[in-house]
Structures are given as C-alpha cells and as structure tokens.
Amino acid sequence: MYLTQGLKRARQFRGNGRAVIFGERSRTWNEVVDRIARLAGLFRSLGLADGDRVAMLAHSSDRYLEFYYAPLWAGGVMVPLNTRLAVPETVALLEDCTPAILLVDDAFRDQVPDILRGAPCVRHVIWAGEGPAPEGMIDYEAAIAATAPIEDRLRGGNDLACLFYTGGTTGRSKGVMLSHDNLSANSMNAFANMGFNEDTVHLHSGPLFHLAAGSRVYTVTLCAGTHVIIPRFTPEAFLEAIQRHRVNAAVIVPTMATMILALPNLKDYDLSSIESFSYGAAPMPEALVLRVMELLPHARLLQSYGMTELSPVCSTLPHRYHATTGPRAGKLNSAGRATYSAEMRIVDAEDRELPPGEIGEIVVRGPMVMLGYWNQPEQTAEALRGGWMHTGDAGYMDEEGFVFLVDRVKDMIITGGENVYSTEVENAIYKHPSVRECAVIGIPDERWGEAVHAIVVPRAGCEIAPEEVIEHCRTLIAGYKCPRSVEVRSEPLPLSPANKIHKVVLREPYWKGRARRVN
Amino acid sequence: MYLTQGLKRARQFRGNGRAVIFGERSRTWNEVVDRIARLAGLFRSLGLADGDRVAMLAHSSDRYLEFYYAPLWAGGVMVPLNTRLAVPETVALLEDCTPAILLVDDAFRDQVPDILRGAPCVRHVIWAGEGPAPEGMIDYEAAIAATAPIEDRLRGGNDLACLFYTGGTTGRSKGVMLSHDNLSANSMNAFANMGFNEDTVHLHSGPLFHLAAGSRVYTVTLCAGTHVIIPRFTPEAFLEAIQRHRVNAAVIVPTMATMILALPNLKDYDLSSIESFSYGAAPMPEALVLRVMELLPHARLLQSYGMTELSPVCSTLPHRYHATTGPRAGKLNSAGRATYSAEMRIVDAEDRELPPGEIGEIVVRGPMVMLGYWNQPEQTAEALRGGWMHTGDAGYMDEEGFVFLVDRVKDMIITGGENVYSTEVENAIYKHPSVRECAVIGIPDERWGEAVHAIVVPRAGCEIAPEEVIEHCRTLIAGYKCPRSVEVRSEPLPLSPANKIHKVVLREPYWKGRARRVN
C-alpha cells in the first residue's frame, strides 16, 4: 500500500464531504487533496528529490494534516518534530535527518534564527502559521495558490514514509523509520478492531508530532472519514469539539482521562455521539477505565499497547474484555492480545520463547515493525535481532494469549542468576505507611553480579530505617527479591522529561566506569 | 505478512478451543497446527523444496483446511483443483504447474490411474479420503502420525502462496498466482468490513477449490475463529450446520440463496446465531437480497465484488447501504465501493480515467492484486498494464464512488466508434413478450467495424420476425444500439460450463479466420 491512496479513495467517496475541521476552518476532500498536490509541487520546486526529508515544528492544525501527506505525495519523507524540545535538541534532530525544508507555526517563529544557525541543512522555511509570513519565510497559502498540483510520485510499500523521533532520555534520540506498509498495517488493524468507515468523525487531540495521535491521521483518511483537530489538548476543548462536531471516535491517554473526569461541569457536555474510544500510550488504572466506561456507556472502548517502533500498536484489548465479572473478567489489567496482523512472544535473554506465566521480554513480529533507526544500524540490528522487535518491556502471557506488563527489561535486576523486577519490589515498599516515594535499582555486587538496592523517601514527618524497609519486604516477597541495601533520602527523587522517576540518574554513581548489561 | 502466522496466533489465543468441525469430527487449534506441521514434514520428506507446488483434488473437508496451510508451512505452494473438470482438463492443469505431490479423496480415487498416466510429474499420491489408503497411495493419517512436525519455513510477503486456476471457457486456463500478502490483504479488508474475531464461527459451504470460499479459510484462521465445513452445499446441510454449531458468519452466492429460500420447511431452522452474511461471486437481484434480509433481520449483510485475480474482493457494499428508502437507497444494485486497501477506477480503452457516469473498464490497484498468471507473462502484462488489474468488466461509477456493472468488456461492441453494451440491448429485447432467450454479439462489418447482431429464441408457440425485434428496440434504446441484423432460432442457446450463454460459441462462425479486438 501507499499512504496517499487513502486521499484518492476519500475524494472518490466524499469529494464534497468534509475532510477536516480546525477551529472555524473546514475543507472538503476535493480541497484538501488539491492543496496537498500543490504543497507537494512546492516541495519539488524547492528541490526535494525522492527520499528527501521535510520537517515540521508546529502545534496541531489543519495544515499539519496536509503536512502528513504532501512530503509523501512529493516522493519524500515526513519528519514531525517534538514541540517540547529545547532549540539545541531540535537542532540535533535536524542535523541527524538533514531536511532542506522546515515548516513552522507561530509558536516556534522565534526559534527559527537559532535553528537556522545550528542546522545549516535547512535552506527553506515555510510559514504554516496564521497571518502573513515573517520575512525570509515562504508563505504557505500564497505558495500553494501559486503552485500547480503535481501527480503523486506513488512511493509506497517498503519505502520510507516518516521519521518519528523517540526517547532521548537516555542517550541520543532515535529516528524511527516507518514505511508506507508499516503505517497502513496499523490502520488496517484499527479498522479490524473498530470498524471505522466514511461516517467516522475522529477527534485528534494529542500532539500530531507523536505517533499515538499521528497514526490515526492515516487511519481516518484511509477510511474516508472526517478529521477534527484541536491545536492542543485541554479537557474543555476536547469536550467542546466532540459536542459541536458530533465526533464519534477519539484517542486518549490516562492523564487526559483524569483531567476530563475532574471537570466539575462534565455532565453539561453532550457526548452521545461517541461510538468508540481508544486509550493507551501508558498503563491506565482499572478504576480510571471503569470511570470512563461509566461516562460513555454507549461507547466501545479499545485499549492499545505498543511503541513508535510498532507503528505504534501491537496488541489490543477489545471492548468485550472490559469486564469485571463473567468469563471475560480479569483481562482489564492486561495489555490485550496480539492485534490481527501481529505476532507476540515472551522470550528469555537468549530469545527462547517462554511458556505462559513466565516473565521475559515482549517481542513482536509483523508488518507493523519499523524499518529501523535512521542512521543507527547497530541499534537497529540489536532491536530487530532474529526478525523480532524487542520492546524492552518485560511481561508474561496467560494461557489465552493476553499479555501482562511487568516492567522495563532494563529495570530488571539479575542477582545471583535470578531475575528481579524492580516494580514488584517497589510495590512492596510502597505498602509501608511511612514511604512517600521509592525506586529500586540494581547496583554492582562482587558476589551476586547485581544486588537489589532501594532508595526511599519517607513521608513528611515520618522516619524509616533501612532495616525496617528490608524487614517489611520480607513479609511480602521472596527473600532474593528483597533489597540488600536501602538508602533513605529526604529530597524528592529526580524525574525524567516524561515525569517518571529517572533511574538512569539514580544508577549513575554506582555504575560509573562500568558497563551495565542493559541501558 | 505470511499466512501461517494466523495459525500461531489462533493457537496462542485458543489452543484448546475448536479450530474445525467437519461432520462428527472436531479438532482444537493445538491439534490442527500440530497436524499441519507434520503434513509439512511429510511433504519435505517426499522431496518438496521451497516454491514447489502441491495439488489437491477433493471435496471440502477438515483435511482440505490442513491442505490450505501445510504446503505453505513447508515452503511450497498450494494448488486446489476444480472438482468439476474432466480428467484431461485436470491433467492439463497438473502439467501446467507440475506438482510432484497430489492429494485425492474418495470421489476422485478412480481418476488417479488416468491422471498419473497423463501427468507423470505427479510422483506421490496422498490419500486424504476416508478409510485406509488404496494401494500405491500414501495414507494421510498414518503418514502424519509417523512424521515429526517441522518448523514453519516462514515464506511470506510477496512469496507465491497459491495457484487458483480460473476460466478455461475461452482458451487455456490461467493459474492465478496469489502471494501471502495478497491473501492477507483480502482478510484484513474482510475484518474491516465485518469485524470478525476469535468468537467467529464461520461456515464454509462453497467448494474449497474456489477462492470465493477459500479466501475465507485464511480469514477465519487469521481472526482465530472456528471453521465449520460441509463437504458440498445443499440447502439442508447448510441450514443444519448453522443451527447445530451456532454458526455466526457465512458466504453465499445467488443460486445458493435461491435454493435456501425455496425450502418449504425453512422456518423450522434456528438461524438466530447468524450475525454476518456475505454474498457475491455473481450479481444478486435486489428482490433476492431483500428476501435474505427478511429471513435474517438480525444479520449484517455484505455484498462483495471481485475476481480470483483480486484475492478475490475489490469492492464491497456494506450493510448500511442495503436500504430501499432514505439517503442511502439506490446503491443496492451497485457492486459497492473500493474496499479499504483497494483503489478502483473506470478507464477508457487507452486507460484514461473516466468521469463519474461514463462507462468504461473497471480497473483495480492495491495489495490484493495478483502477482500474475503462472507461466503466462504476456497475459500477465496485458492484465496488469500500467500497474492496474484490468477486470474485463465494464461499468460506471457514481459521484460517491459506487460502481455499477454493465457488461463484460469483451461483450462490448464497438460500432461506428460508439460503444454498445450487449446487456443493454439484451434487456431491451427481453422486454418483448414473445422472447424467451436472446444474445447480442458484435459481428464483423465492413463499414462499422462491428455491427450489433441479435440471436433470439421465441417462447413456445410464439413467432417473431427479425424486423419486429429491431422495431421493438427502437422504442426503447438509441438507434445506434439497435440490432442491424437478427437471427431467430428455435433451439436453446449454447451454455458455457458456468451455465451462462456461451457467446464465444455464438461469435465463432462470424469471426472465423479474423482477429477480434478482445476475447
């Protein structure tokens, strides 16, 4: 498949139907496809050749939707940039994938001079913001009005379509290379799970630089539906868009759900149009899922698990398993099962398949597995060894193929030949009433290879002795899993950019000058 | 994708769940996958190498299901043979694709000596029938019990998976080469349309040598569902299987629907389990569709249009367009719209896209388009010219992308530069009360290139003059479409093996020694 074919099918089905709604602007499929073919013509006239990258640094908008397609239509590759990065980080990504063309909007206008100084590969900046273009930039609207539409270059199949940068919390960011077939496979699985069609009116509320939101752009076009886009998530904007445009499908992540459910006037919004609601990107506590189900009793829920390298979904928990009683209960805390075209396995450190119930690394095979990491052949070979994507997540599978996540593999501690999952130890420590925060890491140990080490922050006004933590753990988990050493700190633990406890920083003083098995 | 991955996913989800029900036999997914891995081992032990063909000549059965996978698991290619052919025709197919291994059942036992004489490529015959193997044949059950299971050879993607022979009414049969990706694409579209999952219990009632039934074998495995197989269609066997096994999905063709609806005790069967019902393979009159809807008010209907070369579906009419009133009415006589991963166009004789409403040839692009015809590179190049599968069907598209079939392109007559569709003329002639049967063909004409010629059989006791037919047509259709000559016959018109009027035979005396544009 090639991703641009969805545009032609949507135009054939609903040429005069609404393709996109953004604020007060709305365009038909005839208009959007014409604009994409013109924007692609602009890219070619600026020198873009097949396989060249085009980047965008902007908040979500109707122009961002066009950016999802125009580089592909022109034969190139689409690179959406994280809007939360500092300029030096953005520059590093641009220097990595060397696009000659960069699109920016109002929010990033002031960064442009520094970006151009740092990344001289960028030779053309297109103003995709509102109002006239600042000096030195190409005006998006004026340029596409003045450029003739070109024919689709028809790149597809295994051709590179997009680079989505991930990570960066540990070491260099990785540009995940996704092909036309990768992203099409993801969309076909979404259809199989959700039955989207030309009546689908989908709200994109997450940032379009992230694949959790972005993959649905391709999906909604491929089903000839309607895109509703809000520039940035707020619970009010989310609910207003649903009510105003009779949105029937959306994706949320747990923090969004929490914010929505906390709104005092939640009941004032008419959410009756919602038919399907997907959630994922981070584990969603069961209580939160149940509250969403209560809010939207008429909606089908779908939990998705995956990662950018998997385009992004590899497993799903369909609505029929959102049950707390009956034969389908007990799966709500799982990450679901392999989606239609995916294969999932749990393997040990030597990539041998493990039987149900045993914890190991989750690996995935199928048409949604990325082509690799841009310019990082060694990391690619490591991640895709044996033809399987190694997720870095540890988990187990039950007898019916449901996968339960346990931990990140790199947070697993191997002590005396036994695997200890840090979350299991942390869960035990958190049960102590005096503990406010804790983290469990592996530290070098002459005898055991690694030893279980806990760092604990007591609650305000409480005190806790290291021995007390260890004794407490002994009443809850096996002896070999209990911390061999405990450090009590008064200051809060360091956080990563994703607001998780930053274990890399915690581990560092212990491992300085030594190589740790996984990082 | 590779088609065998569905087996592993089904085993992971429902290892002890029922995979297949055939008469009194039923097997779990663990059993079926193990048997397939053993049968594949048998094939390899008989000398099968990657890419080698294995053929089967048998009625549908649980072993036929295993045959759909074992050649693929072994790295080979599956060739199901038409059970309606005469021995010389079967021999011709075997000589075309040269399998060393042939599976047969009871119904074809007596043909084996003649087949082996005619097709010496066949070196091993495996007895897939009931009871002990006849002399000289390998016993299926004994051999797989004695053979160790092998690892899946993991052929997939664009590798050849199957050869399905089509046509043969005009000239040599063509072996349609379908890849793993072709057939997987078809299944993914089926999921998008029908939402099949591991709860699907699907009845295969059509012959498994034909892709209309066969493609659903791959689909049901890929959704981890349950296969219910009956050896041959009878309306009673069909309805009994639904009732007994609580079947919730099935495929029918119009003649099957007619036979089912004619059963006097139809109301005695419990069909409440049916959730989705697909129909296609031939145009189904609206009145018949409405009667099926009346019989199964709780079921979702899906019409599919396609051909073996399209794996086989390229367009679908979903349930929501099965409407006779309201904004969705008027589509029931169409062949639906391009399915999710398909692109469809109507083109003229020079492959230029035609606007809505204009009649031309239906062409299709997408991952479901065959690799080509086995050993027939010229026919392949002709059928796939410009990257589009040329269906040979003439039709037009409305403003919403719905395709309406008009005729076979080869039955189109070009007279004085105008296209005349024989069905349109035939429909006009059939409106004459004295006409029992008619066929309209193009015959050579010095002045017009081709001239419209009608062959008419009057009803018993009626007489009709050629001029009367022409005059009658003038009151209904444009002058250039009216027959220039009419031949009245008393004997019935010749029928093709597919029970259609055999126009090739009718045209032959007129075109002997001349080349007709299309055939």
Rg result of chain A = 24 Å
Strand residue content of chain A: 25-35%
CATH superfamily of the largest domain in chain A: ANL, N-terminal domain
Q: Roughly what percent helix of chain A?
A: 25-40%
Query: What is the tally of beta strands of chain A?
Result: 26
Largest interface: A-B, 34 and 34 residues
Number of domains of chain A: 2
- End-to-end span of chain A in angstroms? 36 Å
The CATH first-level class of the largest domain in chain A comes to Alpha Beta
For the biggest sheet of chain A, the summary is: 9 strands, mixed
**What is the SS-derived class of chain A?**
alpha/beta
Averaging pLDDT over every residue of chain A, what do you get? 93
Oligomer: homodimer
Number of helices of chain A: 15
What's the architecture of the largest domain in chain A, going by CATH?
3-Layer(aba) Sandwich
CATH topology of the largest domain in chain A: Rossmann fold
Largest sheet: spatial strand order of chain A:
2-1-11-10-12-13-14-15-16
pLDDT below 50 for ≥5 consecutive residues: which ranges of chain A? none
Write down the overall geometry of chain A.
globular
Could you describe the 3D structure shown?
2 copies of one chain form a homodimer. Chain A is an alpha/beta fold and 519 residues long. Chain A folds into 2 domains: 5-393, Rossmann fold, CATH 3.40.50.12780; 416-511, ANL, C-terminal domain (GMP Synthetase, Chain A, domain 3). Helix content of chain A is 30%, strand content 26%. Chain A starts with a helix and ends in an 8-residue tail after the last helix. The mean pLDDT of chain A is 93. The interface between A and B is medium-sized, with 34 and 34 residues.
